Automatic annotation (TrEMBL):
It holds the Pfam family NmrA. It comes from Aspergillus viridinutans. Residues 2-243 form the NmrA-like domain. InterPro entries: NAD(P)-bd_dom_sf, NmrA-like, NmrA-type_oxidoreductase. It comes from the Eukaryota. This is NmrA-like domain-containing protein. Transmembrane segments: none annotated. SUPFAM superfamilies: NAD(P)-binding Rossmann-fold domains (SSF51735).
Amino acid sequence: MIVLTGSTGGIGRAALQTLLSEKLVPVSELRISAYNTAAIPTAVRETGIEIRKGNLYEPSTLVESYSGAEVLFLVSFPSMGEERYKLHRNAIDAAKAAGVRHIIYTSLSFCGGAEGNTSVAQVAQAHLLTERYLKDSGMTYTILRMASYSHLWNNYAGFLKLDAAPDVVQEAVLPNDGLEHWANRAELGEATARVIANWQNYINRTLNFTGPELLTGVDIIKKYMKHTGRKVNVRVLPVEEAIAWHVKNGSVPPEQASFLENWASWHTAISLGEKAFLDPTLEQLLGRKPKTIDDQAADIFSASHGLDTKDLVELGLILGGTPQTTFCDLLGSSEHIVGALHEYSQRPVFRSRNPSLRSRDELYQRKLRDMLVSNALPKLCDKTFKVFVERVFPFEQIVQAHQLLESGSSKGKIIMKIE
Ligand SMILES: NC(=O)c1ccc[n+]([C@@H]2O[C@H](COP(=O)([O-])OP(=O)(O)OC[C@H]3O[C@@H](n4cnc5c(N)ncnc54)[C@H](OP(=O)(O)O)[C@@H]3O)[C@@H](O)[C@H]2O)c1
């Protein structure tokens, strides 16, 4: 039995889809452990796959959802905070207690290659601690060090406003620059499935999944200019100056300015060559060349490309009254809402594909609530924002409500009335 986590997220969903569609492992040998079991789509449920509740914050649920399994596919917790390592330990401890023998863990491709074990990138620290903890656990392991997702390029290339007027010359300010081996998230998930299915071939190994080319931040901005015809002035400044510029520019909300240090440390890491290598493993597992940035240009350079809410949440760019604000999580994420919000705010509004705020830690949710109260509530009260309601159902029609939700055809919020 193989337990899969993160199946509602980007990597885990792609891995699950590949496992199921290519029948790499019999469904009877797979189990999903999910924080929010209701988010598992009907099509997945209908395969008959076992689903158990497993919340990284509640170790007892983890033991229960991993019990009887031989292998755990552990997707790292989606946050940049320190709690991540604690939650990973919860999972590793629970796996051990439940009798799991092998863990496949999603890490990041810093450190200059598979042999490296140190990084200056803040985001890598919890991963490296987790890798160490896993290696010391007594269980066997496979560590998958993933390249940075290509759809997130803009977060590392100066937070450009992708839907700025075509004639605006944009400013991109980077703190250091260096080579990165960007990869497509769906392809990373697909390759992950092949490792999961053949885990015995990867015992106690660390694999790097990299894309097919090495590009600096400046290179990617050049490609953005080439594909969109837009103009960008790029400056690579010393870290302190670049951070100060982004604080002044409002690239992130003032209270999240500390995130910029984290962001800058990623740039410092690539400037030191921590990601300046290509590895053939992804291509071998896919059986084809992984997508280049040019292959993905239409998706990743357009103003309306649907950034995953969770990526925005992780990068602290949500609901802060900044140029990169999204209210979609609360108000719905259809084109209708996105268009209305854009018209109202004259700001980029990203479509949210997979809202998951419920799974964030309490501190984050509290902060978000406070930001909502100060930023969004007044606009809801004076009706400059309207929540678009698709349909109201009585509680007895919960099945129909779910069917409408899962059909993907609704434009607004679906309300259940509990009298
Ligand atoms: N390589 C990169 O460039 C890169 C970039 C960004 C992030 N990452 C990290 O790589 C990992 C995988 O990426 P991804 O894109 O698949 O992330 P993702 O889309 O955010 O998925 C994360 C998964 O974790 C689940 N989860 C959240 N809270 C949980 C909890 N308390 N207990 C159990 N499960 C929980 C989520 O469930 P719900 O759907 O119910 O919330 C979701 O299935 C994440 O750690 C992410 O932060 C990598």
